[in-house]
Prior knowledge:
68% helix, disordered C terminus
Amino acid sequence: MEHDLRLTVFWIVHLVLLGLFGVEFVFVLSVWLKARVPGLPEDASRWRKLGAVIAFTLRLLFSRRIWALLKALIADGMVHRRLYRTDLRRWAVHILVFGSWLALGILSTLTGVVVEFLPLFGMSPEAAASLPIIGHLFHADVWWVALLNELLGLTVLAGMILVIYRRYIQKDPQLRTMPADTVAIVLLTLIALGGFPAEIFRLLADYTTAAGVFAPDPTMLSPSKLPPVLYGVWGPQWAFVGYVSALLLGSLRLSPDVWAVLHNVFFWLHFIIVTALLYYLPFSRLFHAIASPIVVAYNSLSEQESHRARGPAGGEMPRPAA
């Protein structure tokens, strides 16, 4: 399947599945709204509860408290400074797993904006690729993009190996592993692994000559796929694991069409696994792990405000005389 056709099919399928995921999330939200919302009677309608939650969120976002909340989100929700102070080993595992997935997600989102959305606003590939710094994300074979993707991919994989070791080999007593957790861990591990063969076969499909020789050169790609402005920063070899693997497999002297078929197989397999995780997410404890930074940040903000209200001695702050 040609590059442009594959991406067109991908986005059509992706948008349809996102719409279905929206329906699924509405159902999950309706279940959540059965719970009691502070400030409302127990028999309040779900619409009333939803309105109260939205109003509370908007008041918080557009208040001066938002800056303190963002600070708490980074320090307590993401960096987990309390865990750092109590257990350095567990903190390191958390940062390795959560931090690498977060960074990879941010990089993928920015790449999607540059490659897919900027052209929708009439920007040509050359113009998009010419943007300072983020323009380099237009193609994965820009040297620092290739290196960063490779390092983050390896870090994510190392983090998942640590998760598997702690839960199933070491059997850390602090961790309770349910069957649902195993499903999420398997899907995450397959996602971490699946990116490598997809990248390897992409390199082979893009840079194998008609004679079956793997001989990477930027001019082998069309200007719409790799704009000439990026030739000076082109460097697929910086994705060292994928590049070395492509070199080894390239010795088989297969045609570019064979590699393209294999790339499509692993591309769509990777997409299916990611979609499976997306649909499974609202029903798993993994969703709580994703939402927990926000919850932890808000609780930390509330504790700080409560502490300031009590004053340094633990009593109520004195009120000024009328």
